[in-house]
Amino acid sequence: MQTPENVQHKLRELAADGKTLNCYIYDTSEMCNKIKLLTDIMPAGVEVFYAMKANPHAAFLAAALKADARGIEIASLGEAEKAVAAGFDASRLIYTGPGKSPEELSWAVENGIRTVHIESLTEAYRLNAIAAAAGKTQDILLRINADFDIHEAQTTFSGGSKKFGVDEEKLADVLPQILALDSLNFRGLHVYAASGVLCVNDLLKNCQLVFGMAKQIEADFDGVICDTIDFGGGFGVDYLETSHDFDPQAYADGLQHLIEEYGYQGRTFFLELGRYLAADSGWFCTEILDIKDSRGKKQVICAGGINHFRRPAALAINHPLALVRLQREKLFDSQEEIRNESVYFGGPLCTGADKLANDVYVEAADVGDIAVFGLAGAYGLTMSNMEFLSHERPQEIVI
Ligand SMILES: *Cc1c(COP(=O)(O)O)cnc(C)c1O
């Protein structure tokens, strides 16, 4: 990875202050480009939502608004409030997630959000009672735990026993009950197979299976139309720098083909993308406080660890890494340095689990340099153990 010029420039400016450097730097121009590109190339009827759990920072919501994303996919009341504060009308919010509280559902109904994605029969009855009491009808999608999974993916949301949605084989029992609830308006299906998928054909296979499911439902239930189909997220990011980026044009072409094959022109399709939009708009930048040799292996200790950037440890992968060299003076002559070797990066926490990168090749690094972890714009700070060991919260700097 190369650290972009503007990020390097900002880091050198911050380093001149003399304060220990430990921050996220955000530049959301790439996120805007991606949203605009997808909006341009996707088939008619496809609407792009930003799945804000990837990064709820105001800069990312502002980028989604500026680039004219159709709306925001939320999964809590807190997210709803942030999205509205950022300028999204509640009618541009779609609401997913297992375990929505009565308070959260009431907010959704009162504020007229676009769709609530029903994850269980209990939730359907609960939402129906809330909507009835408010004298309103709420549009819903039914989330289905499909009976297939995408094997390549690291995290699957569908297939096997899952806490998401209603098992596909229970539809015959569950759907009539949902259709009978007067204050809910069934609009269609939500099937989110897996996240972090780089292979376009795997995701298209999912689209095809979901279309097949919709067709079956329409055949089995008189008068039912799935006019909205939500494919979830899933566009992957090349964290391991294999040069095999997700190809959105191939996806768009494949989806167009399927829409024609199934005669689904005129229907609405949701994409709720998190990491694909946000990942390359953020860098976690942390100062090297110490370098030690321990039994023949170099251990690099940074100012921030899993308390600020948990994702590499949580998923056991190395994010792209680059160094910003600051040529600081050594404290003593034999102070350790890194020169063309594979080393370990960790943070300051008093636990062996505090790892940032394992066995990663580094050309040169010294104490006082800045380690820059790329693709950190998604699932960075808010997915981390921020309170653990009570270190200062890293700044989030927007450039
Ligand atoms: C997390 C999540 C997303 C976003 O997933 P990405 O892999 O970041 O694109 C989309 N939809 C739902 C329901 C989610 O839970």
UniProtKB/TrEMBL annotation:
Cofactor: pyridoxal 5'-phosphate
Keyword terms of this UniProt record: Lyase, Pyridoxal phosphate
Listed GO biological process terms: lysine biosynthetic process via diaminopimelate
GO molecular function, one term: diaminopimelate decarboxylase activity
Cited InterPro entries: Ala_racemase/Decarboxylase_C, De-COase2_C, De-COase2_N, Orn/DAP/Arg_de-COase, PLP-binding_barrel
N6-(pyridoxal phosphate)lysine: modified positions: K53
EC number in record: 4.1.1.20
Domain Orn/DAP/Arg decarboxylase 2 N-terminal stretches: 33-279
Domain Orn/DAP/Arg decarboxylase 2 C-terminal span(s) in chain numbering: 23-377
Keyword Nucleus: no
Keyword Lyase recorded: yes
Active site: C350 (proton donor)
Family to which this protein belongs: Belongs to the Orn/Lys/Arg decarboxylase class-II family.
Protein name: Diaminopimelate decarboxylase
UniProt organism field: Mariprofundus micogutta
